[in-house]
Structure formats: C-alpha cells, structure tokens
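Model: You mentioned two targets. I'll fold them one after the other.
Researcher: Yes, keep them separate.
Model: Target one:
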Amino acid sequence: MLSACTTVSPAELDPTEPVPSESSSASAPADIIIGAESTDIVDAGGDVLVSLKYSEDGDDAVAAAVEILGEPTEVRHQDSTNHNPEVDGTSWGGFDIVVNRYRDEVLLTGEPRLYQPAFSVQATSASTDSDVAITAVDLTRVGDDFDVAAKNEPTNLVHTDDAFGTRSVAVDLPTSFPGIIDDAGIEMVYGAIANAVSDSSTVTHIIAPAYLFSQS
C-alpha cells in the first residue's frame, strides 16, 4: 500500500492541511461534489466533512479522503512521460484522486502555478463502490445526457474533438483566478470538465481541474 493512502488522525496533520471536521466521525459521507478549485465530501445534511483543494498537498488530500471514505479499492502508479508528470492514483471505485509528482525543474511559479495543480480528481461513475454519490457542482453526474449538461452553457465552454469524436463541457470555472485564459491567441478554458467519448451520448467521466480542450 502506498504511503499516500495511509490513514492518519487529524491531530497528526498540519493545521493548514485538509482535514475532516470534528463531527465527521459521526457523519457518514453522502456526496462527493466536484468543483473547479476543490472537491467537497459532504454528509446527508449537506455539511462539509472535508474540502480537498487542488492547490494543496496531494498526499494530504488522499489521507484526508481515506479518513472519510475508508480504505481505497485500488492504488496505482504511472511514470512520467514527455507531456505528463509522474502520478500516483488512488481509487474508491468510481472516484479517483491523482497526485501529480512534478520534477522541481518543471514547477512553475506565480500565476501559472494556479494551472499546475498538486492533484486532480476524476469521477468515472455516479457513485463509489460504497454508494457515496458523485456529482459536479452543477449536479451533472456520470451517465447523464451530455447534451442536457451542455445545453445552457456558452459555446466557448463546449468543445467537440472532430478527429476523435469526443465532447467536453466546462461544468464549473474557478472564482478566485481566471477560468478562461489567453494562451498565444488561443482561448483556454480551465475548471471542472465533463466528457463524452466517441459514440456515446452520455457523460462518461468528470475531471477537475483540467483544460476543456485536452480531454481524451
């Protein structure tokens, strides 16, 4: 088992790290809500048990999620490529946390660092193996009709990859920094993204944070 998935108590975590609330031990998780800047795990009453901010430490986010969701169903590792950093993934069956392990020499600084998250999350089903629901902040879920999810969104927040037939829509944008940026004259949309693969009319996965045009 990777150390990133080791259960720790709130007292062992730094106060600045994501930790469950004191009432979390008495409240069962009911919903995982995926947003552009963080993912919240809430109970049936809507109280936030833990808020996982993508700008904060990825291993701490995994440990905090373990406190709420229990032991993961799978952990995996992927070496770096020319385009992506080394990553460690932790899954609860339908919900993944992927920790990015950037090399020091490729870490960005300042505003660009906002678009280089410590970790990302992904939903591949509408609930975890333990029946915790998974939704985007706009209530989009895996299995929903993609056209319904994209219906009321501006055209610049919806993209179709003509070469591969995949479609994506931004279901939430950041509020503390720009979710739409200009990159050498190309408008880049960044946030929580719902996707449909070729030959599918339904949302097949939701990932955050990510760029609208980079989904596969």
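Model: Target two:
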Amino acid sequence: MDALKLIFKVNRIIKKKNIRNFLFVDSFGGIHHLFYILQNSIKIKEETLIICANKEIYSFLKKIKNVPENIIYYKYKNNLLISFYKILPLIILKFFMNKIENIYAYKIVVDPIRFLIINIFISSESNILVHDQFINFYIFKKKTFLKTFILDFTNLFLPVNLKLYIHKDLDEGVYPSINKKYNKKIVDYTWQDINKNFFNLKRLKKKNSLLVIDDTIHLLSKLKYIDLESSKKNMLIGINQFLKKNKINKVYSKDHPNSKRPNILIKIIKNKKIQKIKNNLPLELIIQDFKYCIFSSSSAFYYKANTKLYNISKMMKFVDSKSYDNYFYLLKKTCKNNIKKLKFL
C-alpha cells in the first residue's frame, strides 16, 4: 500500500534528519504563505520536511534556492469520505512512530493522506498552524444524521478530528477539513522579503505593458454560466479598444502553473504579438513589472497590487442572476484587498 510506504519513509526522514516541522503543500494558491513559513523556519534554523501533493509545485520547489532539500511527493485519488476510511486503520501506527513539533499548512482542507500523516505524527505537545486566507468563506452546515453519527464516532479515536465544511467558489462543494481552530492570524510580510530570500529577481518595469491572465472563462462556459460566443464578441471590442486607448505596445500572457484551461482572453487580442511568460514563478512576484493587467479571476490579487487591474466580467453575458452572483462572489473573495480599486472594461 502506497500510504503505508509513505508513512515509514516519513518516519525514517524524521529520525535521520532530526525533523521538527512538517510543511504541507498542495497547490500554487496560497503559495505566499508557504514561503512565509519557510523563511521563518530558515531564520531559526529548524529542520523542516515539505510534504507535497502537487507534482508541478514539487518540481518547482526543488529548483529554488534556500528551500530545504527534504521534500517528498505523494499522490492521492480523491477526497471522498470512503477514501479516508479505507486508510484510517493505519492510525494504529501512531504508537510506533516518531513525533514532530509543528505542522504547517496554508489550507484547512485535507486529503486522506495528509489527514493520516497528521494523526500519526502529532503528539499532545505538537502545534498545528494553518494560514488559510479564505477561512471566512468556509461554511459549516449540519449534516445528515447518519453522516454526523459516522463522523462523530470516528473522531472519538483521532487526535485531530475530521470536519466537513462547505467551500463556495463558483459552486458549493463539501470538503473534508481539519478544525477551523487551527487557523492562526498571520503577521504582515511582503513579497519583497520573499523575493530576497528565495528568488532575488530584479524588477524590470515594462512601459505601457499589459499582462493578460485567464483560466476562468473556459470554466464559466463549461459550467454554463455564460454565453461564450456572445461574451467573446463583447470582450473582443472591449479589449481592442483598451489597447488602442492606452497605446499598449507590449502584451504578455501567463498561464496558471497547473491549470489546463485555455487563456480565452489572449486569443481575442488581434494584431498584437503576444509574449508568453513560461516560468512557474508566482504571479505576485512579477505582476509589479506591468502597468496594466486584464484578468478574469485570480487569487494572486488577494493582497494589494500596484498594477492597474482591469476585470473583464462586465463584458460577459451571464445566463442568469445566480450565475452572475456566484461569479462576483468568487471575484470578491479572490481580490479581497483590491476589490475597491478594480476597474471594469
């Protein structure tokens, strides 16, 4: 069993490297919290094991200076409750494994493997610290009697309990999570600090430049939230008028590091050569280099950005008011600290 092999591998690394911290990584969203956690553990010279559930980000982290060499990758099939219960008998291993001091993550949502690892390697003295920027968007609703009974009974035998929260993006979904109580307030920090510690990029301000990012419009169409063809006609007019009005001479695009959805906005732009940014660097690191950004939705704008941000949504033809409301709920969530400064084409 892969989970069993992973547990013993983690235990060997703890013992050999005197690991004090676990850092769980599962996506590029919230990656600024990952670097914040890392730079603090480096400052106080604590040995940290990065446990990664995302192949792209695993490869990305392996190439960055100052990131600990102790990184392991695992994969899991799904987040269905049955997947949690299938491997929970391995919890018996907690009586034979070494313990660690701190568990860090940037999402309270857990997959079956992560949940198992937490419960096996935690002790009564261990700390769990999660910096989930979207914590206020998790909703708890009473479950059915059967599901409530099963969860409550299972949690009797677990040091860290399993919860179910509704997390609304464009649609509502129920996600297995650890308790909200583990979410801790994060202190202020900057991407300048992160850049200095891990990337050392020089700022290259591109005059009259536009960055176009989009991996949402295709999803909106797939969910039947918008009439794509009518929306594309409106966006074609709006974007090309914007380019002409602001005398844009350079247009760049950047795809989401692990999204396979096409950038529909970039296909709309006519008579301009598009320069594609191919690296996996966090968007937060490079967005300041551009004067303008046109986008559909991105959590990269959760924190304040100096770039002039233009959202395309007013030119999209939504099929009904619910679709419209769900999209703007997502936009408000992902652009929390920029929402008042957003401009719409």
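Researcher: Noted. Anything on target two?
Model: The chain has a mean pLDDT of 88.
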